[in-house]
Amino acid sequence: MKKSNFNHNQNAEAATVTPADLVVLLKGLADENRLKIMRALVGTEKPVSRLVEELGISQPLVSHHLKELRRALLVSVERRGPFVYCRLADPRLAGLLAELSVLAGELLARRNSY
């Protein structure tokens, strides 16, 4: 995939994020299939056809969720010949997914009721 000219480091200036901006990102994460897609893309890029095979989700459904993930700025997509390749938009998302999983596990372990 083509590399962005933007330098993703801690010293890079971040845009001011409003609660509404954060909701866009969180809505992108708030779906089981989208989380499965993002986890499948940690540390790699894959063609849509491989995501379909690995996740057992139909191609139209994978494409729909990729569209939503792109809208939320979580996934990058690039067409190369007849194939469409996907990857996480920022490698830091892998750490975010891992931290969310740990946090969810800890919170769920303390749950007494729904």
Structure description:
The protein has 114 residues and is α+β, with helices and mostly antiparallel strands. It has five helices and three strands. It has helices at residues 19-29, 32-40, 48-55, 59-71, 92-109, and strands at residues 46-47, 75-80, 83-88. Strands 1-3-2 form a three-stranded antiparallel beta sheet. A hairpin with a 2-residue loop joins strand 2 and strand 3 (83-88). The termini are far apart. Mean pLDDT is 88; it is low at 1-11.
- Major sheet attributes: 3 strands, antiparallel
Please write the string of helix (H) and strand (E) elements. HHEHHEEH
List low-pLDDT spans: 1-11
Assign the structural class, choosing from mainly alpha, mainly beta, alpha/beta, alpha+beta, or little secondary structure: alpha+beta
Helical segment tally?
Answer: 5
Shape: globular
Strand content: 5-15%
If strands are numbered along the chain, what order do they take across the biggest sheet?
1-3-2
Determine the fraction of residues in helical runs and give it as a percent range.
40-55%
Rounded to an integer in angstroms, the radius of gyration calculated over CA atoms is 15 Å
Distance between the termini: 43 Å
Mean pLDDT: 88
Quick one: how many beta strands? 3
